[in-house]
């Protein structure tokens, strides 16, 4: 039986013991979902087929499959999705040697993938740490001149850089729709990508609006490592500052 891990409810802040589920892999080996220790659980306010599954690789056979996303219920009635350790992205294949049959038959080359060193997170203990961690992450994505405001502006912008504005929500409540729309308008005014980081996740309508506006959303865990929660965030990770 897998060891239980503590999961803090974002609504009542109660800490509950959660035992990760174990499933049988196709190879016959038991596969326990690798819960991300220190990860921030996200309240489930709207279920979608895509968000109900996670990719996990079997340590025994190396098979990569989708499994039901782990969920935990609190006595207050809140149900959260517990984050799992993300599957490492495989390195890009080596390009074919010049003159080889593969190189000569290939079509026009696409844009090269953005290669980066491993991100070094900033442990989150205070609200200011959240802002620092988000700034470091944006710099890692290629926005090298990102600066944090001394105090949050009336518009809610915490970070600015060439081609990017960002809001960091360190509260224990889900980020609301109005904050997403205000952030998007700031990005529009600055002709910049607007990015949002939240410690407690997003309300259902905020998430839906961000998808419509193609605004990247990230959740922060206490290790200081942002996790993407929508397709625009995945695209930003893939393309970095060149995506603007």
How does this model look, in words?
This protein has 244 residues and is an alpha+beta fold. It has 2 domains: 77 residues, no CATH class; 117 residues, Trna Endonuclease, Chain: A, domain 1. Helix content is 21%, strand content 23%. The protein contains 5 helices and 15 strands. Helix 3 runs parallel beside helix 4. It comes from Streptomyces rimosus subsp. rimosus.
CATH topology of the largest domain: Trna Endonuclease, Chain: A, domain 1
Basic shape:
globular
Query: Mean pLDDT, rounded to whole units?
Result: 83
**CATH hierarchy: architecture of the largest domain:** 3-Layer(aba) Sandwich
The total strand number stands at 15
From the N-terminal CA to the C-terminal CA, the straight-line distance is 47 Å
Fraction of residues in β-strands: 15-25%
Helix/strand class: alpha+beta
What are the low-pLDDT stretches, counting only 5+ consecutive residues below 50? 100-110
Main sheet overview: 6 strands, mixed
What number of structural domains do the residues give? 2
CA-based gyration radius: 20 Å
* Helix and strand element order: EEEEEEEEEHHEEEHEHEEH
Which terms summarize this structure?
alpha+beta; Trna Endonuclease, Chain: A, domain 1; 6-stranded mixed beta sheet; Restriction endonuclease type IV Mrr domain-containing protein
């Amino acid at each position: 039986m897998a060891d239980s891990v503590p999961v803090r409810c974002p609504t009542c802040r109660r800490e509950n013991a959660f035992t990760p589920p174990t499933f049988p892999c196709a190879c016959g080996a038991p596969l326990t979902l690798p819960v991300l220790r220190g990860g921030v659980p996200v309240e489930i306010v709207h279920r979608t087929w895509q968000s109900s599954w996670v990719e996990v690789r079997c340590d025994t056979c190396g098979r990569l499959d989708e499994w039901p996303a782990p969920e935990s219920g609190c006595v207050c009635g809140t149900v959260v999705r517990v984050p799992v350790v993300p599957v490492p992205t495989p390195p890009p294949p080596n390009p074919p040697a010049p003159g080889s049959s593969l190189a000569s038959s290939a079509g026009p080359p696409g844009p090269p993938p953005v290669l980066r060193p491993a991100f070094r997170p900033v442990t989150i203990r205070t609200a200011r740490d959240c802002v620092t961690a988000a700034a470091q992450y944006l710099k890692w994505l290629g926005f090298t001149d990102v600066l944090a405001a001394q105090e949050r502006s009336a518009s809610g912008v915490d970070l600015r850089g060439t081609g990017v504005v960002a809001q960091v929500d360190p509260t224990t409540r889900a980020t609301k729709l109005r904050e997403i729309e205000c952030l998007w308008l700031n990005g529009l005014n600055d002709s910049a990508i607007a990015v949002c980081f939240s410690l407690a996740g997003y309300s259902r309508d905020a998430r839906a609006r961000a998808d419509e506006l193609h605004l990247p959303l990230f959740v922060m865990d206490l290790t200081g490592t942002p996790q993407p929660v929508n397709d625009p965030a995945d695209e930003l990770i893939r393309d970095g500052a060149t995506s603007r």
